[in-house]
Amino acid sequence: MKLRALADGLQAAEVSLAVQGVPAPPAVAAAEPFTQLLHWRISPAQAQRPDPNVVVADNDMNTWGWGEVPMKQVPESLPWRLYRTDLRLRADLNDGRARLVFRELAGKAEVWLAGVKLGEKTTAAPGEFSVQLPAGATQRQLTVMIESDPAQPSGVRAKVVVQKP
User: Fold this and answer.
1) Are 71 and 42 in contact (CB under 8 A)?
2) Residues 73, 157, 153, CA angle at the centre, nearest 5°?
3) What is the 3-state secondary structure (H, E, C) of 35-81?
4) 113, 115, 154, 161: least surrounded by Cβ within 10 Å?
5) CA–CA distance from 132 to each of 56, 99, 161 (Å)?
6) pTM confidence score
């Protein structure tokens, strides 16, 4: 390869560089260390504890909102909300050893998967919370029920991921 430099008022210069081919580096397929949960539905705020297994019509585009994490609810007088998404698990995360990790939940919370309560966060202060995921169908409905402190913001305030042990 020859590199030549030219500029008005300067002497031209040229240098030769030896170039040799190299094989392409091998490609390595790597699985994500975690799976992030997306495409959440959010119920309206409610005065009474809702049924975490309430059925929402497939064509309901108005009652429940849509959201992505972070979903921060401002302080409000009605303390209860449901957050729902479909949990789709790869086979390597569906062996009963993976954990569902909420990097930050604000408010007291219950986590429900396919109609079964997996765990409960008993303090309203924002913090990380996790539950073990039982083996099961590769696609299941996940519902998080949050009871907020009326004076504090609440919600799913950071990533929600599925992690290997």
Assistant:
1) yes
2) 35
3) EECCCEEECCCECCCCCCCCCCCCCCCCCCEEECCCEEECCCCCCEE
4) 115
5) 26, 4, 12
6) 0.78
Structural domain tally of the chain?
1
pLDDT per position as a tens digit, 98-125: 999 999 999 999 999 999 999 999 999 9
In whole angstroms, give the CA distance from residue 31 to residue 47.
43
Q: Can you give the CATH number for the domain in which 104 is found? A: 2.60.120.260
Q: pLDDT digit string (tens) for 118-160?
A: 999 999 999 999 999 999 999 999 999 999 988 888 999 999 9
Q: Provide the residue range defining the domain that includes 130.
A: 33-163
Contacts by 21-27, CB closer than 8 A, 24 or more apart = none
